[in-house]
Each structure stands twice: as C-alpha cells, then as structure tokens.
Design a protein that fits this description.
486 residues, alpha+beta, Rieske Iron-sulfur Protein, nine-stranded mixed beta sheet, 9 helices, 25% helix, globular, binds FE2/S2 (inorganic) cluster
Length: 486
Amino acid sequence: MESIWTQTTEIQSYDKLTEDMTADAVVIGGGMAGILTAYKLTQNNIDTIVLEASRIGSGQTKNTTAKITSQHDIIYSRLTEDFGEDLARQYAAANENAIREYKRIIEKENIDCNFEEKPAYLYSQNQQDVKRLQDEADAARELGIDAEYTTETHLPFSVAGAVKFNNQAQFHPLKFLKEIAKGLTIFEDTRVIKVEEDTVFTETAKVRAKHIIFATHFPFINAPGFYFARMHQERSYVLALKGAAKLDGMYLGVDDDGISLRNFDDMLLFGGGNHRTGENSAGGKYDFLRAKAKEFIPQSKEIACWSAQDCITLDGVPYIGQYSSSVLNWYVATGFAKWGMTSSMVSAMIISDMILGRENPNAEVFSPSRFTPSASTKTFIEDLGQTVKGLARQFFTFPDEKAERLRAGSGGIVEIAGEKVGVYKDEEHKLHIVSVKCPHLGCQLEWNPDEKSWDCPCHGSRFDYRGNLIDNPAQTNLERIDTSQS
Ligand code: FES
C-alpha cells in the first residue's frame, strides 16, 4: 500500500547521529514542515540540524494528495464569524502567500516536481449545501481570495453547486522534498527520546541548540503544551485510478462522504472515507471508495491505494509558533488538518521569521496560545469525552471472542485468562498478540481492518499488528505477548 509518490521517487539516505553536536537550531521531524523550516533557516545562515526518526518524507508527506491551496473545506465563513475579519484575513493571506512561495522556490531551485497551477473547487451534490457554498465564496472574496460561486465543473457527475478558488496549485511532494533537502544537515534513523531546555536527546547522542522546532506531526512531549488535550487525529483513504478523464482542477466534496479528486500524470487520485482514528473497527473504507469509483468512473482501473492521517485542532486552525510560554526557545508546527502541504509552508515562513527576529503579519491567527471560546469549547469537551471513553473501556468486559474464531487475515480484542489483548491471525494462521493499552496515556486501542493496525481513539497513535509504532504521539512499541506456543 505504497503511495504513488513513494513509488515514483527515490530519496538519498542520510547517516544516523552518532556524536554530540551543537547548532543554532535543531528541527525534530523530517517531513515537509521540518525540511522546509530547515531550508529557510539554512538559506538565512542559521546553522540547522534535522533529526528524523525514520527516513525524511516517510511520515504523512508521502501520503498526502499534495494539493497546495488556500481552500480548506468550508472555513472562511466560519473563521470570519469565530475569529473576526482581521484574523480570518491573516489565515487567507498566509495560505495564499504559501502557494506563491512554493512557486518561487521551485523556480529559484529549478525543481522538476510536477508543479501545476490549477483552480481548486469545493462542491456538493446536495441542494441544501448551496447556501453555505455561496456564503463561503462571498467570505473568501471579502478576505482577498480570487473566489467565485459556480455550478460548472468538470466532474463526471452533476453537482448542486461549487466554490472555485483560482491560482491554486498541485505538485509531487517527494520530488520537491528530495531537492530542497540537498545541502541540509540531516540525520535519519535518529529518534528523539527527550528534550530538556536547549538539549535534544536521541538514542545515540545529543544536540544542543538555541532554537528547537517540533515538526513531528503530533508533538510527543505532553507537558508543557498539552497538545494531546487539544487535538485529535483522523484518517482518510486514497485510490489512484487510471482510465479517468482529465479534470481542470482539484476537487473536494463538502457533503457527507464527499470525494476528493485531483490528477497526477495520467492518474486520478480519488480520496475519502474519513473517520476519527480508532473508530474504524467495521472497516470497509477502501471498499466504499471502490464502489464510488465504479459508480462515477466505471472504465477506471485501480493501480494503488494508501491512507493518510491528519491532526485536527480544537478550532480547525493549525498551531504554529511558540511551543509554550514556559519554553521560549521551543517552536511547534502541528494540527494541519487535511492541508499539510500548504500549512507546512506557512509554518516554515512563520517559525523562520520568529527565529530571525522578523515580524510576520499573519502569525497571530496560528498562535498555539490562542483560545477562541466559541470554536474551541465544544471540540475540547468532545475530545475530552473521547479520552475518558478510551480510558474507561479498559474497565468493562468485552465480548469473550476466542482467538481461534478469528479468520485468517483478521484481528480483534479477545480475553485470554481474564486479560484483554489484541490478536491478529495472519494468513499462515499464526497469532500475533499485543497489549491493547496505548503506551501514550493508556487508552484502549481498536482494530482497524483496512490497515491491519491497532489505532488509538484518544489521540491517534497507531501500531502495526506486530505492535510496532506507526504514528505518534506514543513513542514506544506495544508490549508483545509471546506466541511461540501458538
Ligand atoms: Fe494518547 Fe493513545 S494516543 S492514549
């Protein structure tokens, strides 16, 4: 289940950190946000080191649909109401500037990365969404975006209405990342285990730096910052199809089960099936997309499928800026929702300006210390409820489904000798048994049959069926139970 980006790019590998170092800045995380921030700092003569636990671009950057847009679902009408016009205008300007900045860097560095300027559309097939699409077009235009309401699209099905943003873009994220990483100081296979004041400790050595940037998708330090209490994670799924007609732009459905579409080369990326991480025990998300593809584009042929994970903040706006008021030299970039590529550039621009002592006129709306009561309270209570539910599950008895009843290739929670454990039966009928207690804060994990993974409903950590960590904020693997007798 490799994305087409991974299938079409080879990125050089970098050494592991083996000796203590010092630098002006250290970036934790070698995804798009981390590499772009390091690129901008290095361009401004700030000596910067990137520490990546695995390989650069191997996290969510390889799974994105790689749209570069200021169009982030229906957001501008809501932001104007919840944040006020000034802050909503900052959000619009920051994201429009990010599109232009990608273009500038690609031209300056002469990067061949399938960069194409295209319009982006939000659409709905439901008549009852027309008013909110019209309101979104009005709100976006008020904030300076070249936006219009339309009923004309190139989609292979009819729509009730759509919002079109002009001058947006799409690209190949790994081809871009690979080029801007050249010339940076990067260490791979170097997992950070703790951070204290100006020192970052890895499993093998430490780095001291004046500035420390957390670009780790989900911050793994619980306190200060308490990001686990103000974000949750969601998953979504993508098919790459051949045989579909070319679209004029990028599309996102705003109705329930709306589909995201964009072309890459001679393929169509066809995405959807969103759900909160840890809430897909019934599975069927890829099947849902395949059924929709068959309905809308019956002549198409699937050539790849993969999934992505996104962090969602309480008010839907990323947290970019100072990590916490108690650690002035730490910075964070997280909570990008489904808009990771544009938000990565916004983060790099804001955090590099902060470190360089330059004022960024669009930073305030992203400040992690903000709290907008009307937008945040409801989501905070929902997220807290989810955490309590996840913790409470451990004290209830679950159906005593016996491991031997599992079909080959399936998994589930069973009780063995009074203990709840996660069991996966592989194709050879071998049982893989792991603890289902999340090592982050102890919530009970749920089985995700689409990915054959154990997913946490509280803050979104994920593990493969062998218990290996896939997604943070957890930092360790699951406890494994010896299956040599099975
Ligand atoms: Fe926080 Fe699992 S990710 S408890």
